[in-house]
Design brief:
- The structure holds 2 protein chains of 2 kinds.
- Chain A has helices at about 5-40, 45-60, 60-70, 75-85, 95-120, 120-130, 135-145, 150-165, 165-170, 185-190, 195-220.
- Chain A is mostly helical.
- Chain B contains 8 helices and 21 strands.
- In chain B, strands 7-8-9-3-10-11 form a 6-stranded mixed β-sheet, sandwiched between helices. A 5-stranded antiparallel β-sheet of chain B has the order 2-1-4-5-6, with helices on one face. Chain B has a 5-stranded antiparallel β-sheet with strand order 14-13-12-15-21.
- The chains are: A mainly alpha, B alpha+beta.
- The interface of A and B includes residues 131 and 146 of A.
Chain lengths: ~230, ~350
């Protein structure tokens, strides 16, 4: 049997994983403080900020992609900034894809983290403070370990959701081999070219990947089963 | 001294508390629920931040004007109502959590020592606090707080979440800490029994205010305070174990006002114990009773008489030097016996509870 995946397919798979990994790391870094703030703030802004973070869940990816394209374009504010910094324009680059994906997958990371943080009783934080732990110390010695299942869920969902995106990629990334052509776009190309066998291999691979990841998440994560 | 002043208001609750107590022994914050005991304790810990509050513990200012020492910089231990052990840490790591966060030169107690005091040697190797009983969890929490070598120990009704058996299990440990450690303890309680058993000073709270504070016995003897109106109002007498009567299974406790016979206790002769006598268990006779089944009869003098409702009066009696008893009798008995202040009477004590 010939190799199931062409070199273009393998390159798309590699690019997809690279994108998802980078996006997941960035999302954990910016999602953690956002989720912590949302979980603990008494501020009136909690509602509006929570709603903004959740927007990508309900909006069509093309809408997000469209606005990001405009913002990152030559006359958009982000575009003006990146040009002024000498980076050039971000649309149709890997960096642009990363930024778009971060927006698109943000709720899938923030919401599990927020739930995990909300489940930590205020009392645990107070106890740590009376035992001489500073806020930062408490975060690393109490909050992180207690929120571990939440971080696992957030990472897996952020990663898997980025792997599965299509609309935003098309709007922002286009279809440039090795730069922005991820698996979902590659499948679309195969179908357009009537290469159904290749489309099958990649699609089935995605199904298996998604299933295995979610299975691992649900079996390894003991959320809600503690006695 | 511990001096504090806090003002705090929430919808439906306001704290305007001024506190001034000696920084040694056990200081009980006592009052009905909703009187602000826990809030005052949280203010002292810094868990509640009040604008314009003031707090000085011995020679250290913890709060004054804009200065506010954050909780984690205050050398205090805090025991919450429920044990609040970290579920992700083993029992040993829970104990070490605070210990590891203070510089070694500040260690005044060793892990092994505290483990022994609180009877934790069988529990310390548990990998998780999940399987511990309520009493065991609270003992671990107390040990964990002590291991930070605090200069002030704050306890918020540490027994209230426990059943009677666990309470009985843990009280001796608390008494032991009291005698072995020279750390002032502020102890929130709504049980007069616990207070009489543990406290040296009593701070009474009502509706967010400190209404009186002072030495335990002085406070328990004040008929004008709400403690005198409680069903279990009474006095505490410091006694020493004088004799055991093996035949009748009794123990004699001596104090300056005489002797009290109680059911045989295990304490060695000479040991100090606190005896608690409830006002409702003390009746009065003007002549030495004869042929009475009550064996504890003390010569006393009436110091104060105060009406307690439409039918009853409270009496404060002095017995011996500086010891006092409360007695609650009917108003009719007072009038029939013509009881007046200064009168010499006999106090018949129906029952004595031994509380240490």
């Amino acid at each position: 049997m010939e190799s199931a995946f062409s070199s273009a397919d393998l390159s798309a798979i590699w690019l997809t994983f690279k994108l998802a990994a980078v996006v997941t790391v960035i999302l954990l870094l910016i999602g953690t403080p956002i989720a912590w703030w949302l979980a603990r703030t008494p501020s009136w802004w909690k509602g509006p900020v929570g709603a903004v973070v959740a927007l990508p869940i309900v909006l069509p990816p093309t809408v997000i992609g469209f606005y990001l394209l405009v913002a990152m374009g030559p006359s958009g504010p982000l575009g003006a900034l990146t040009q002024a910094m000498g980076i050039g324009l971000l649309p149709f680059t890997f960096a642009g894809l990363v930024i778009a994906s971060v927006f698109y997958s943000l709720p899938f990371v923030v919401q599990p983290l927020q739930n995990a943080f909300e489940a930590i009783p205020e009392r645990a934080l107070e106890t740590a403070a009376t035992l001489r732990a500073s806020a930062r110390d408490t975060f690393f010695s109490v909050v992180l370990p207690l929120a571990k299942p939440g971080f696992l869920t957030a990472s897996v969902l952020g990663f898997a959701h980025t792997v599965g995106e299509f609309g935003v990629v098309l709007m922002i990334g286009g279809n440039i081999p090795d730069k922005t052509r991820v698996v979902s776009v590659q499948i679309y190309d195969h179908v357009e070219a009537m290469e159904y066998a290749s489309a099958h291999w990649l699609s089935a691979g995605m199904v298996v990947f998604a299933f295995v990841v979610l299975l691992a998440l649900y079996t390894l994560n003991p959320t809600g089963k503690r006695k | 001294m511990i001096q504090a002043r806090f003002d705090l208001s929430y919808p439906g609750f306001a704290l305007h508390a001024e506190l001034q107590v000696f920084a040694h022994g056990v200081i009980a914050l006592f009052g009905p629920s909703g009187s602000g005991k826990t809030t005052l304790l949280r203010c002292i810990a810094g868990l509640e931040r009040t604008p314009n509050g003031a707090l000085q513990v011995k020679d250290e200012v913890w709060q004054s004007g804009e200065n506010f020492l954050p909780v984690h910089r205050r050398p205090l231990g805090y025991v919450f109502q429920e044990a609040s052990l970290f579920p992700h840490l083993s029992v040993r790591r829970n104990l070490e959590y605070g210990l590891k966060r203070i510089p070694p030169e500040q260690h005044k107690v060793q892990l092994e020592q505290v483990v022994e005091w609180l009877g934790l040697s069988k529990l310390i190797d548990r990998t998780s606090p999940a399987g511990l009983s309520g009493g065991e969890r609270q003992r671990v929490a107390i040990a964990r707080a002590l291991l930070t070598s605090p200069r002030l120990l704050l306890m918020d009704e540490p027994l209230s979440a426990l059943d009677t058996a666990s309470k009985r299990e843990i009280l001796p440990y608390l008494e032991r800490l009291h005698s072995e450690l020279d750390i002032p303890v502020i102890y929130v309680s709504h049980s007069l029994d616990e207070v009489a058993r543990l406290a040296d000073q009593l701070v009474l709270m009502e509706q967010g205010r400190v209404i009186a504070s002072g030495a335990l016995n002085e406070m328990l003897g004040r008929l004008d305070l709400p403690t005198a109106h409680l069903d279990d109002a009474g006095s505490m007498i410091e006694t020493s174990v004088a004799d055991h009567d093996e035949e009748y299974h009794l123990t004699r406790l001596d104090f300056s006002g005489g002797s009290l016979w109680v059911s045989r206790v295990e304490h060695a002769i000479g040991s100090r114990v606190r005896a608690r006598v409830l006002a409702r268990d003390v009746s009065i006779a003007t002549v030495a009773p004869q042929g009475s089944s009550i064996s504890n009869i003390l010569a006393a003098r009436i110091d104060e008489i105060r009406d307690e409702g439409p039918d009853r009066v409270n009496l404060r009696l002095s017995v011996g030097s500086g010891q006092m008893l409360l007695s609650r009798i009917t108003r009719r008995s007072r009038d029939q016996l013509n009881l007046t202040i200064g009168m010499a009477v006999y106090a018949q004590v129906k029952s004595v509870a031994l509380i240490a």
